[in-house]
Amino acid sequence: MEETQLQFLTNITAGIFQLVNITSAALALAVWDYSHYQSLRNIAYYGSLIISASISTTIVIMLLRGIHNKQPYLMLPFIIYCSLQAVISLMFLSYFITTAILQYWFSGTLSLYTTQMIAIFISASLYWVISLWIVREQRQQIEKSAESYHKLLKHRDHKLRNSFTKFRPLVRLHPWAYIQI
Protein backbone atom coordinates (compact mmCIF):
# COMPACT_ATOMS: atom_id res chain seq x y z
CA MET A 1 0.00 0.00 0.00
CA GLU A 2 1.18 3.54 -0.64
CA GLU A 3 2.44 5.68 2.20
CA THR A 4 -0.28 8.31 1.79
CA GLN A 5 -3.03 5.68 1.83
CA LEU A 6 -1.59 4.10 4.96
CA GLN A 7 -1.26 7.49 6.61
CA PHE A 8 -4.88 8.31 5.73
CA LEU A 9 -6.12 4.95 7.07
CA THR A 10 -4.07 5.38 10.24
CA ASN A 11 -5.56 8.84 10.78
CA ILE A 12 -9.06 7.39 10.33
CA THR A 13 -8.20 4.60 12.78
CA ALA A 14 -6.97 7.14 15.33
CA GLY A 15 -10.13 9.23 14.86
CA ILE A 16 -12.41 6.24 15.36
CA PHE A 17 -10.39 5.19 18.40
CA GLN A 18 -10.73 8.63 19.98
CA LEU A 19 -14.43 8.83 19.11
CA VAL A 20 -15.10 5.44 20.70
CA ASN A 21 -13.20 6.44 23.84
CA ILE A 22 -15.15 9.67 24.22
CA THR A 23 -18.45 7.88 23.57
CA SER A 24 -17.68 5.12 26.07
CA ALA A 25 -16.70 7.68 28.72
CA ALA A 26 -19.94 9.60 28.11
CA LEU A 27 -21.98 6.38 28.35
CA ALA A 28 -20.15 5.40 31.54
CA LEU A 29 -21.01 8.80 33.03
CA ALA A 30 -24.64 8.47 31.96
CA VAL A 31 -25.04 4.96 33.37
CA TRP A 32 -23.42 5.65 36.74
CA ASP A 33 -25.98 6.43 39.45
CA TYR A 34 -24.01 8.58 41.84
CA SER A 35 -26.84 8.88 44.39
CA HIS A 36 -26.57 5.18 45.31
CA TYR A 37 -22.86 5.31 46.19
CA GLN A 38 -20.69 7.05 48.73
CA SER A 39 -18.83 10.14 47.64
CA LEU A 40 -15.46 8.36 47.82
CA ARG A 41 -16.64 5.75 45.32
CA ASN A 42 -18.04 8.45 43.06
CA ILE A 43 -14.73 10.32 43.14
CA ALA A 44 -12.84 7.10 42.39
CA TYR A 45 -15.18 6.32 39.50
CA TYR A 46 -14.93 9.78 37.95
CA GLY A 47 -11.18 9.84 38.54
CA SER A 48 -10.73 6.51 36.80
CA LEU A 49 -12.76 7.77 33.83
CA ILE A 50 -10.58 10.87 33.60
CA ILE A 51 -7.41 8.76 33.80
CA SER A 52 -8.75 6.37 31.16
CA ALA A 53 -9.62 9.21 28.80
CA SER A 54 -6.22 10.81 29.40
CA ILE A 55 -4.35 7.59 28.65
CA SER A 56 -6.39 7.01 25.49
CA THR A 57 -5.81 10.56 24.32
CA THR A 58 -2.08 10.23 25.01
CA ILE A 59 -1.96 7.00 22.99
CA VAL A 60 -3.69 8.70 20.04
CA ILE A 61 -1.40 11.73 20.24
CA MET A 62 1.66 9.46 20.28
CA LEU A 63 0.32 7.53 17.27
CA LEU A 64 -0.31 10.69 15.25
CA ARG A 65 3.01 12.20 16.27
CA GLY A 66 4.78 8.99 15.28
CA ILE A 67 3.21 9.18 11.83
CA HIS A 68 3.95 12.88 11.38
CA ASN A 69 7.55 12.75 12.65
CA LYS A 70 8.31 9.32 11.16
CA GLN A 71 9.12 7.83 14.57
CA PRO A 72 7.94 4.21 14.68
CA TYR A 73 8.54 3.75 18.42
CA LEU A 74 5.73 6.22 19.14
CA MET A 75 3.27 3.83 17.49
CA LEU A 76 4.10 1.00 19.89
CA PRO A 77 1.65 2.01 22.69
CA PHE A 78 -1.25 1.93 20.21
CA ILE A 79 -0.12 -1.46 18.89
CA ILE A 80 0.07 -2.90 22.42
CA TYR A 81 -3.31 -1.42 23.41
CA CYS A 82 -4.87 -2.59 20.17
CA SER A 83 -3.50 -6.11 20.63
CA LEU A 84 -4.89 -6.34 24.15
CA GLN A 85 -8.29 -5.04 23.06
CA ALA A 86 -8.37 -7.50 20.14
CA VAL A 87 -7.67 -10.42 22.49
CA ILE A 88 -10.36 -9.25 24.93
CA SER A 89 -12.91 -8.73 22.14
CA LEU A 90 -12.18 -12.15 20.65
CA MET A 91 -12.54 -13.78 24.07
CA PHE A 92 -15.93 -12.14 24.63
CA LEU A 93 -16.95 -13.08 21.08
CA SER A 94 -16.08 -16.72 21.71
CA TYR A 95 -18.02 -16.62 25.00
CA PHE A 96 -21.17 -15.27 23.35
CA ILE A 97 -20.90 -17.64 20.38
CA THR A 98 -20.56 -20.56 22.78
CA THR A 99 -23.54 -19.27 24.77
CA ALA A 100 -25.62 -18.96 21.60
CA ILE A 101 -24.71 -22.46 20.44
CA LEU A 102 -25.54 -23.99 23.82
CA GLN A 103 -28.75 -21.99 24.08
CA TYR A 104 -29.85 -23.08 20.63
CA TRP A 105 -28.87 -26.66 21.36
CA PHE A 106 -30.83 -26.89 24.62
CA SER A 107 -33.86 -24.69 23.93
CA GLY A 108 -33.97 -24.44 20.14
CA THR A 109 -34.08 -20.61 20.19
CA LEU A 110 -31.63 -17.74 20.23
CA SER A 111 -32.09 -14.76 22.50
CA LEU A 112 -31.96 -11.28 21.04
CA TYR A 113 -29.40 -10.24 23.67
CA THR A 114 -26.93 -12.97 22.66
CA THR A 115 -27.34 -12.15 18.97
CA GLN A 116 -26.75 -8.45 19.64
CA MET A 117 -23.67 -9.19 21.73
CA ILE A 118 -22.27 -11.41 18.97
CA ALA A 119 -22.79 -8.62 16.44
CA ILE A 120 -21.19 -6.03 18.74
CA PHE A 121 -18.13 -8.15 19.46
CA ILE A 122 -17.73 -9.20 15.82
CA SER A 123 -17.58 -5.52 14.85
CA ALA A 124 -15.27 -4.66 17.77
CA SER A 125 -12.94 -7.56 16.96
CA LEU A 126 -12.85 -6.59 13.29
CA TYR A 127 -12.04 -2.99 14.19
CA TRP A 128 -9.17 -3.97 16.50
CA VAL A 129 -7.68 -6.51 14.09
CA ILE A 130 -7.90 -4.16 11.09
CA SER A 131 -6.51 -1.25 13.14
CA LEU A 132 -3.64 -3.41 14.30
CA TRP A 133 -2.87 -4.43 10.73
CA ILE A 134 -3.00 -0.84 9.42
CA VAL A 135 -0.79 0.63 12.15
CA ARG A 136 1.73 -2.20 11.94
CA GLU A 137 1.98 -1.72 8.16
CA GLN A 138 2.50 2.01 8.68
CA ARG A 139 5.15 1.33 11.32
CA GLN A 140 7.01 -1.14 9.12
CA GLN A 141 6.98 1.29 6.22
CA ILE A 142 8.42 4.06 8.40
CA GLU A 143 11.07 1.67 9.75
CA LYS A 144 12.07 0.67 6.20
CA SER A 145 12.41 4.27 5.06
CA ALA A 146 14.37 5.19 8.20
CA GLU A 147 16.61 2.15 7.77
CA SER A 148 17.47 3.04 4.18
CA TYR A 149 18.10 6.65 5.22
CA HIS A 150 20.45 5.55 8.01
CA LYS A 151 22.31 3.24 5.63
CA LEU A 152 22.76 6.14 3.23
CA LEU A 153 24.04 8.40 6.02
CA LYS A 154 26.37 5.71 7.33
CA HIS A 155 27.81 5.11 3.86
CA ARG A 156 28.24 8.85 3.27
CA ASP A 157 29.88 9.40 6.66
CA HIS A 158 32.20 6.45 6.13
CA LYS A 159 33.30 7.82 2.77
CA LEU A 160 33.77 11.27 4.25
CA ARG A 161 35.75 9.94 7.21
CA ASN A 162 37.99 7.84 4.95
CA SER A 163 38.74 10.78 2.70
CA PHE A 164 39.97 12.86 5.64
CA THR A 165 41.93 10.17 7.47
CA LYS A 166 43.84 8.61 4.61
CA PHE A 167 47.00 10.63 5.07
CA ARG A 168 46.67 11.94 8.61
CA PRO A 169 48.32 9.87 11.35
CA LEU A 170 47.01 9.56 14.91
CA VAL A 171 49.16 11.03 17.70
CA ARG A 172 48.88 9.67 21.23
CA LEU A 173 48.44 12.42 23.81
CA HIS A 174 47.44 10.33 26.76
CA PRO A 175 46.95 6.58 27.37
CA TRP A 176 43.30 6.94 26.38
CA ALA A 177 43.33 9.98 24.10
CA TYR A 178 44.38 10.23 20.47
CA ILE A 179 44.36 13.24 18.23
CA GLN A 180 44.58 13.41 14.49
CA ILE A 181 47.07 15.83 12.98
From TrEMBL:
It comes from the Eukaryota. The chain crosses the membrane at residues 12-32, 44-64, 76-97, 117-135. Keywords: Membrane, Transmembrane, Transmembrane helix. This is DUF4220 domain-containing protein.
